[in-house]
Amino acid sequence: MTRRDSVVALSGGIGGVKLALGLQGACAPGRLTVVVNTGDDFEHLGLAISPDVDTTLYTLCGLANAQLGWGRDGETWSFMTELERLGGEAWFRLGDKDLAVHVERTRRLAAGEPLSEVVADFGRRFGLATRVLPMTDDRVRTTVETVEGTLSFQRYFVARRCEPCVTAIRYEGAERARPTPAALRALGEPDLAAVVICPSNPYLSIDPILAIPGWRSALQSSRVPVVAVSPLIGGEAVKGPTAKIMRELRLEVSPLTVARHYAGIIGGFVLDEVDAELAARLDVPVRVAPTLMRTLADKERLAREVLAFAGTLRGAR
Amino acid sequence: MTRRDSVVALSGGIGGVKLALGLQGACAPGRLTVVVNTGDDFEHLGLAISPDVDTTLYTLCGLANAQLGWGRDGETWSFMTELERLGGEAWFRLGDKDLAVHVERTRRLAAGEPLSEVVADFGRRFGLATRVLPMTDDRVRTTVETVEGTLSFQRYFVARRCEPCVTAIRYEGAERARPTPAALRALGEPDLAAVVICPSNPYLSIDPILAIPGWRSALQSSRVPVVAVSPLIGGEAVKGPTAKIMRELRLEVSPLTVARHYAGIIGGFVLDEVDAELAARLDVPVRVAPTLMRTLADKERLAREVLAFAGTLRGAR
After folding, report:
1. Is this complex scored with an ipTM above 0.85?
2. What pTM was computed for the model?
3. Cross-chain CB nearest to B79 (options A85, A96, A121)
């Protein structure tokens, strides 16, 4: 019998990647594939920027800026300071180290390389064993309809700090986009143990992935359990605008809403301990666990719990 | 009678801009226009880079890196270090501050702005009273034919450190290029006192300007004296490959060769003191002066000498 030890995780940026980092520690080296949202990719200053992919790369490589919560460790800001002096657009902060990734990615994409190959090569050069893959090599752009009008994702998220009230979210290009081939191959590997939906914002980070028809069908037909971890604890998101957006979209701010949102895809749901009493109201198997991840130990402990849960679901099939 | 106090200087990068800095000190604020070679402009990492224009801007603004002799003062190198780590092209060094100029220029050119307007705006933002203008808003590319084959200028100059033996130099696009309109207007101003050809490399820095038909004819029909300063002192260039290239092109390495090269354009030539005995062999008026510029005082002294010389030539008309 094949030893099942490979894992595919779906993730957005900062929130989800905490669990991805835990999974990286819980898996044998090279056995984790992280599929990352690219709906918040955008072109800025002529550069192709992939915020969630970069946050994932930096975090898994140990190169992330712990103070800021985004960008690179030991970053310098000479470029940004000068750009402001020249009257350039400064609302999206680009550090000097970070900029190397954007410039080199832009150059390679312009030369015809798919994003997934560029990202894979960056990972190798950073010494990363985990595979980080954009959800697609095609163009998908998350667009936020608000009471102030239509905003591109980064305008909404960074420039407007998620302040405008959201009325709808669209994933432009998702209908025609195809999953990254290497990611689909990872889903089909005989040693696959589980697919984990990280506790990212379901609407901004996971839905862009699920809006790609090939991803939705691949997950629906997955031979191994798909397990989602609740991004809400006691009716609030640990970080970011998940709860605010749910209220604006007139959704009940509850892990139940998230679990039901993933209906048809997930075979199990992980609830935080404070939400334990909700378990009875879900019609998928539930594991209750501490989901707040402050330390690396927290992340790895939750990751092992999630994988153990997936193991029981696999056994039950 | 109009007070003649405005000056137009033609210059390349490091060598010529020393005199441009002297002229800036010798002229009243805002009375100097520096027309800069753009034959060594190139596209690198997807960025539009104008080395001589930037060297001129940085030097005249007091923002140049005195240690390096190129680039920005107080520069940091985070971008370059990371780019090398990512396997990017590292032969052309781009500092973090410097990069802001390239990224913002590239963005504005892509948006349809002429280079001259972008550069003028950068100058204003840096607080510069002197007008710095690229020789043209059109594309001209200096190409060096060598015994090792054809090299783009920066490949020859930076990557190959001027080592390959030069057989010819071409200025691609120059025939169809037009002078920057604002620079032609500066040449036509009633208060113009002199046109100065700075002691730049005649073949790599000044000839790209003269290869533009509109520039050659404008200088030939100038109402004020065009005065060139020898880039050679005692048969050698102070810096750079001028003498080496002249030998390779089988030209006598002498200020006489340079003066004759500018025949039909210049109305006067400035020789260094060590070359004083050559004066008799030139058929244009000559001023002998110390042309080695180490300090700002040297530069301003030479500038005043050149302008005084032009004044005598104007009076003699």
Report:
1. yes
2. 0.90
3. A96
